[in-house]
Write a structure and sequence with these properties.
By secondary structure, this protein is α+β, with helices and mostly antiparallel strands. It has helices at about 40-55, 65-70, 90-100, 105-115, 125-135, 165-185, 195-210, 220-240, 255-265, 285, 290-300, 300-315, 370-385, 390-395, 400-410, 420-435, 440-455, 465-480, 480-495, 515-540, 570-590; strands at about 1-10, 20-30, 35-40, 60, 100-105, 215, 325, 335-340, 355, 360-370, 500, 510, 555, 560-565, 595-600, 610-615, 615-620. The chain contains 21 helices and 17 strands. The strands form 6 sheets. A 5-stranded mixed sheet has the order 3-2-1-4-5, sandwiched between helices. A 4-stranded antiparallel sheet has the order 13-14-10-15. A hairpin with an 8-residue loop joins strand 7 (about 325) and strand 8.
């Protein structure tokens, strides 16, 4: 039986992303095809929900992870120190999720849009948007400032039979419309929704991460803000010397446009134009113009943005936990995050070090080693029956140094990370960029962006498009199956009209360009493995009292990396267990390519976290806090 479910809570507040449940509503379809809907107060909602979850019903929602958490928060299991039995609400949800009986119409629509080729980038997936798309129904009037949407806590002690008609109608309509949208989506080809259950589980994993939230460290945040101010200030001083910035802080736009035009003309190209046909001065244009001066100017955009936006969000973490917003799935199968953008925070510059675990906890940090390259090697092995990249991985060879040895024409044994770090960094960028199918110019532009963002050594700004062309030649020599892969991609998109079906998950992406197809397969395979690993970890954190992870909480997901807050006394065992789960899960997706997942214990999230052991037990790189914040 199909049951649509929706919750209404007390108002969401900073530090309280999942407030107390106020009421809930259910909707279903009778044998004659008519729809029914009914609203209930919180306690009755939970009793009825338990009954539906225990059965074989399919539960449907819009942003269902929020409904899961709002119904679970009413139960003791949501708190880390509480005991959960097998009939606990969260355990019932997990059982239904594992059985594929939980559906989310927003996630379904994203999958449909991705499979159809329309894509989900820039689209909205609110009930208002989906109701208009599927039902031609305008719900804008119901979402006004005086609607019942934010006021159900006022009725918490009032029997539903005594509610105002508009309050009851709004609550019941949410469940009814959700069911109608679901039924309309059933017209889509079934194979477009093959991956729905996995994506809903991933959304639940990320919702738990968001609900727990992150705390920040005041001293390290102030250091970050100071470093950003100094960086922007020093670059602005240099720009004043060149006449790009006036003494009053305003920019000489005509001067900038002139420099941009000259830079592009020097390499025989037309400068990019705006919609109004003026020479562009966007950060994208400045960074890829090709001069160090314009690169420096473009590099001020992101630090200034972080000062005005990211740091403001991080400062709130001194008062209450920050709940980043995750979205799944994106076109490749990956997720995205915002507020703050944890998955895109630069590895350098002190952004990540701002976060710190709660008192009595430490961070267990586990990331995959070369995850996307392992996924790529597996795909090559599946397609062609051989892979030189797979062979090097099995041999334990550093893939980036191996490429560097071919690029430099030097024996691999003579190269080291320490001595040849810059060449390795250049080749690493090539290993992760060239499989997409982009050319030397694309690689060069990506490098310029990474330099501007602080993720790549500034010394690499001297690399030219011709250097990138030479690297591409070395890359194809190192990985001979790459040419076969590109030929296969070209034939596939020509035959299917651009439709790509993901290995293992069978997720469909339509109307792919050549580079989108090349990227989707290996990035999507890695993303699918990561999402399943996170789900496996969460189940032990919240439900398995016999696991060393029980009582730990995942707090960060960054594509190939998970970070958990673990009670200090159990952190070594918890971190090792996390690493074991991640490695074993990845093996299900890359059965012919071994992969490592290395655990680290630290009081910070960042490059300073190193793996150390003391008397055979994983140790923290700094002692855990016991009282208060430092």
């Amino acid at each position: 039986m199909l049951i649509a479910f929706d919750t209404e809570t007390w108002p969401i507040q900073p530090g309280l992303p999942v407030p107390r449940l106020a009421c809930g509503s259910f909707a279903g379809q009778l044998s004659n095809g008519k729809l029914w809907a009914q609203a209930y107060l919180a306690d009755s909602t939970l009793l009825i929900l338990r009954r539906y979850l225990i059965g074989t019903n399919n539960i449907i929602g819009l942003t269902i992870p929020f409904d899961i958490l709002s119904s679970t928060r009413h139960c003791p299991s949501f708190e880390p120190s509480s005991v959960c039995d097998s009939r606990d609400m969260l355990a019932l949800w997990v059982e239904a999720l594992d059985a594929g009986r939980v559906h989310d119409v927003a996630i379904r629509q994203r999958l449909i849009d991705i499979a159809s080729g329309e894509g989900c980038y820039g689209r909205k997936y609110s009930m208002q948007e989906l109701a208009m798309r599927h039902l031609g129904m305008d719900l804008s009037a119901e979402k006004g400032p005086n609607s019942w949407r934010m006021r159900y806590h006022e009725l918490e002690s009032t029997p539903v039979t005594e509610w105002p008609a508009s309050a009851r109608e709004y609550a019941e309509n949410d469940a009814r419309v959700t069911l109608q949208i679901y039924l309309s989506q059933c017209a889509a080809p079934p194979h477009w929704l093959t991956d729905e259950a996995s994506q809903v589980r991933h959304a639940a994993t990320l919702a738990l991460i968001s609900a727990w939230g992150l705390r920040t460290n005041a001293a390290r945040l102030e250091a970050l803000e100071h470093s950003l101010q100094v960086k922007v200030g020093s670059i602005n001083d240099a720009l004043r010397l060149y006449g790009i910035m006036r003494t009053n802080g305003t920019k000489d736009k005509k001067k900038i446009q002139s420099l941009v035009s000259e830079a592009y003309k020097a390499r025989g190209e037309e400068a990019p134009l705006t919609d109004k046909k003026h020479v562009s001065t966007s950060a994208e244009t400045l960074i890829t113009a090709g001069t160090d001066l314009l690169l420096a100017f473009g590099a001020t955009v992101k630090p200034k943005w972080h000062l005005d936006n990211t740091c403001k969000t991080l400062r709130s973490g001194l008062v209450y936990p920050i709940s980043t917003r995750y979205t799944v799935p994106m076109e490749t199968g990956r997720s995205s995050s915002s507020g703050p953008p944890l998955q895109n925070l630069a590895r350098k510059g002190g952004y990540r070090e701002v976060f710190e675990p709660r008192p009595g906890f430490v961070y267990a940090i586990v990331d995959y080693s070369q995850q996307e390259l392992c996924a790529l090697a597996q795909i090559w092995y599946w397609l062609f029956g051989h892979s030189s990249m797979r062979d090097r991985i099995i041999q334990g060879v550093d893939l980036h140094l191996y490429l560097a040895s071919i690029f430099l024409g030097q024996p691999l044994e003579s190269l080291t990370k320490e001595k040849d770090g810059l060449a390795r960094q250049f080749c690493k960028k090539g290993n992760f960029t060239l499989p997409v199918g982009g050319g030397p110019r694309t690689l060069w532009e990506i490098m310029r962006h990474d330099i501007a963002a602080g993720d790549l050594d500034p010394s690499l700004s001297s690399k030219t498009v011709e250097d990138c062309r030479a690297l591409q030649k070395a890359w194809k020599k190192a990985w001979s199956e790459a040419v076969l892969y590109f030929d296969w991609i070209q034939r596939t998109i020509e035959t299917t009209g651009g439709t790509i079906v993901q290995f293992v998950s069978r997720r469909v992406r339509g109307r792919c360009s050549f580079t989108e197809a090349g990227n989707t397969l290996f990035q999507g395979l890695a993303a699918d493995a990561s999402m399943q690993a996170g789900w496996n970890i969460q189940k032990e954190c919240y439900l398995d009292r016999h696991s060393p992870l029980y009582g730990s909480r995942l707090v960060i997901f960054a594509h190939d990396e998970y970070v958990a807050e673990c009670p200090a006394d159990m952190a070594p065992e918890a971190a090792e267990r996390m690493a074991w789960i991640m490695a074993r899960t990845m093996e299900q997706y890359t059965p012919d390519v071994p992969i490592k997942a290395e655990p680290v214990l630290s009081m910070v999230w960042g490059k300073s976290a190193k793996q150390i052991y003391c008397e055979g037990r994983l140790a923290c790189t700094a002692p855990p806090l016991v009282n208060g914040w430092t």
